[in-house]
Each structure stands twice: as structure tokens, then as C-alpha cells.
Please model this.
Amino acid sequence: LTGGENESFEFLETPHRIMQNIFNDEIKYDVKFNYNSIVEADTACEGWRYGFAINEQITAKQFTQDFFQSSIIIPTFDSSGSVKYLVNYQLLEARHYENVVKSEDVLKYRFEKTKIDDVKTQVNIKYGFDYAENEFTKETGFSVVDNDVNYYRTTGEDSKLEFETKYITDDTTANLLQKRLLLWYCNQHLIVKFDLPISYMNLEVGDYIRFDKLLGNNEKAFGSNYTIWEAKNG
Model:
């Protein structure tokens, strides 16, 4: 909530704006924020609304780590030391592919996959926390996906995820978070670890990149061509 004497008040409901207010106005900690990432986060978080109370002492670090697990952005630091927001985009656009890594420049690499145990095909969000009763009053349920879905030979019960958040009371935001987590956990993720020469030192944590062609001797990763767009499991 911002405003002052003879000023109109505005509710801050997006995570990055709330963070700025807490650090700069509440705890009076002089933090510089990356302006371009704020503008990007404004667009990405449109429709996401947060509301909560902090009813017990907590460190700024603990709050930040906990709070942003319920959002689609991650705060970090850029090369100048300013806070920068990284957006986990649900849909990528052409502008996200501007950083091209040439296959011939990669010094060494290896492929890994996230654990099969991390795959979740059903997600339930518990939200609307009642501070007096110390319990959640709402939940989305698992209805986003059919209960008979059976990915990667896991059963429906084994692949369920229940996520609790004290930072959301809005039904629409809870449903958005449910979909975001489902899309994140419904498949194993490919991890590429690789070394680059100093000519790529302009890249920062959170940058989106693409390879111009398959690495090495046209090597696919676990049978997947990671240089083209692919929708797993439809």
C-alpha cells in the first residue's frame, strides 16, 4: 500500500512491486532495482494478485525465498549489483532467442535429466490462509488434469503435488500458479552443462539462449533435438 498525506493510495499486488515497497519503504534498505526487468515483470505478472500479512518476525532473505516460490519471477542480482527479476515465461517469443551459442564454440559439455521422481501430473494449491485459525481456507483441487493421467509409468497418487502458499487469497492467481507448477513438473527437464570461451562473458544468469545446431557430432540429448521447438506429451 503506497501513498501519503494528500495523495491517493494504490494497492501493490504484484510480487516485484511488493518486494520493492518492503525493502525501500518498510525496512529502509537501500536497494537498487534493474528498471528494464521491472517493466518486464509488470507485463509478465499482469493478472497475478497477492495479499498477505507478516504476523511474526522473519528475515528479509527468508521472506524473499518463500514469497517468490508462489510467483513466476525470481529476484537475483545483475552484473552491476542491482536487483533483477527473472521471468519464467510460459510461452517463449522470438525475442527470447537472440542469444545464440554456436556449437563450434562450446569447449565441452554433458547432458543430464532431472529425476523421474520429481515429475508431477496433478497439482493442488492450498491458499487463503486464516491467521487466526492457523489454517488454509481454500484449495484449487487436482481438477486441472484427469485423475487417470499416467505419465512416465507413475500412478496418480505417486505424482500428486500439494503446494501451500500464505501469499495468495485470489482465486484466479491460485489457478494461475496451479497451471504454472503443473507445466513445470509434468515432464523431466533436460540439463545441459557446458563451457564457453570468454567471448560469451556478456551472458548473465537468467538469460535465454539457443544453440545454432546440435553439439559435438550432431549429438541428440536422450534422443531429443534440443535445437527445435517440441511439445512433450501434447
Remarks:
- The first strand starts at residue 73 and ends at 77.
- The mean pLDDT is 87.
